[in-house]
Amino acid sequence: MKLYYEMEWVWGEIKTLLATVLAPVDFKSMMSFVPVQMEMREDPRALEFMKVFRDEIKDRIDNQSAAAPNETFRMAMNEIPPWSTLGLFRKQGFLR
Asked: Using one digit for the tens of pLDDT, what is the confidence trace for 5-19?
C-alpha cells in the first residue's frame, strides 16, 4: 500500500507542475504516462520511472523549455480524452 500512496503523491506533484505557464509537457505526451500511473501503482520500477518523469518536468520548467512555445490557451480534461474527436481539434488549430 505504501507504493500506491507514494505513486499517487508523485502523480499529484506532476499534475501540479503541469500548471506552469508555458506547459512543460503537451497533453498527448502526458496521456502516455496515465497507464503507468493507473496500472502499475504498486510496482517499484514504475514509481522510479514516474520520479524521473517528474524530475524531467522540473528541469524543463527551470530551463524554460515549453512543449508549445506559442501557447495561448490550454485544454484540460478530467476524464479519458475524446480520442474520436481529436481530429476536430486539430482542424481548428488547437492541436498539432
From this structure: 999 999 999 989 988
| Diameter of the chain measured on Cα atoms | 44
Rounded Cα–Cα distance for residues 28 and 74 (Å):
12
* Cβ atoms 61, 24 nearer than 8 A: yes
The pTM of the full predicted model, rounded to 2 decimals, is 0.75
Span 11-43, pLDDT tens digits: 999 989 988 888 898 877 888 888 888 888 888
Position 15, amino acid: K
> What grid cell was written down for 78?
478530467
Distance CA 2, CA 75 (A): 33
Query: Measured between alpha carbons, how far is 27 from 37 in angstroms, rounded to an integer?
Result: 15
CA 14 – CA 33 distance, rounded (Å): 11
**What is the C-alpha to C-alpha distance for residues 31 and 33, in angstroms, rounded to an integer?**
5
